[in-house]
Amino acid sequence: MKTFHCDKCSNQIFFENTLCFHCNSTLGYQTATRSINAFAEAENGLWRSLHRRDEGKLYKKCQNYVEHNVCNWMLPADDEHDLCESCQLTVVIPALTSEKNHILWSRLEAAKRRLLFSLATLNLTPASKETEPETGLAFQFLEDGVSDQHVMTGHDNGLITLNIAEADPAERERTREQMHERYRTLLGHFRHESGHYYFDRLVADSEWIDEYRALFGDERQDYGEALKHHYNEGPPADWASRFVSTYASSHPWEDWAETWAHYLHMLDTLETANACGLSLHPVKADEPEIEKITLPSKTDDFDDIQRDWFALTYVLNSLNRSIGMPDSYPFTLSTPVLEKLGFVHKVVRAQIKAPVAVPGLVQP
Fold this sequence. Notes:
The protein is globular, with a radius of gyration of 21 Å. The strands form three sheets. The chain has a five-stranded antiparallel sheet with strand order 3-4-5-6-7. A hairpin with a 5-residue loop joins strand 4 (35-41) and strand 5. The protein contains nine helices and eleven strands. By secondary structure, the chain is an alpha+beta fold.
C-alpha cells in the first residue's frame, strides 16, 4: 500500500479515510490514479477534484458511499454506473436488518478494496461478471441461517462466496483456534479465494501448466477426495518442509491459492514499508539489513524480494514482541515454498512486462 496525502493541506491520509481530519476535505479513491484525493462539493451532488493533475474535474461518489457509507471510491461524473468498480463486483450483500450486518458488510468491502488495489499494482484488475459473464469476477457475502443455509467460503467459476461471520474478529479467532491455523484474516480470505480465480485465468491451459505441476502437483487429482482425506487424517507430518500452510497440503489447487495469498501478503507489506521509507541498518554486518526495499512489481529477481522480506519480518516480529504481542509473521518458509513463491512471481511479472489479452482481466 502506498502512502497518501491530502491535496488541500498535505496532511497524511489513509486508504480507508473519507475525511481529512486536518482540513475537513472530503476524500475519495480514484482508480485512474490509484490514489486517495481531496474533493470540494460542487452542485447537483457532484464533487470537484482538488488533485493538481485534474483539478476542477467533476466526480460523483459511489452509491454505496452516499447511501451506506461502506465505500470511499469515486467515479467520473459522466460514468454510466452508480456503483464504483469495486462495488460492481459485489452481487449479493447481507440483509441490512441489523447494525451488526452493516458493520460486517463494511469490513468485507474494505478488505475487498485492498485486494483490488494490490491486483491493480500487478496489472491484474478483474472484469465484473456483468461485463464478462463467463470469465469475470463477482463476490457474494452470505449469512448463516438464512433459509437454513450454512455458508461455505469458497470460489466457483469466478464467483467468490464469503461467510460474513469471517468479518467478526471473535468468530474468526474461534475458527482459527479450532482449525489450528497460525494465521487467519479477512484480507487473507480474499487473497486466497482470488488465487483460485487467477489460477484459471493465468495458469490453467497455459504455457505455465507443466512447471506448475512440477512444483505444486497434478491438480487433476480428485479434489473432493483430497479434502476429505485432509480433514479426516490431517496434514502430513512433514508439511512445513513443503507447504506454506497445513491447508496448502490438501490439494495442488489449495497449495497454489495459499501460495498466491502469501505472495500478495508479501507484495502489499513490502510496498507499505517502502512507501514509509523503512530501512534497517544493524550494528553487526551479518544481521538482517535493508538499504532500500525492492518492490516485487518492479523486479524480476525474486532473490532480492526474498532477502528484503526476511529482514522485514525480523523487524515486524521483534516489534510485536516488544509490546507483548504474538509474532505478526508466524511463518517459516522452506526452500520448496520459496520456489513456489518464485513461480508465482514469474507468472505475475510476465503479465506486467508483456500483458496479453486474458479473458476476464481488464487490459491496462
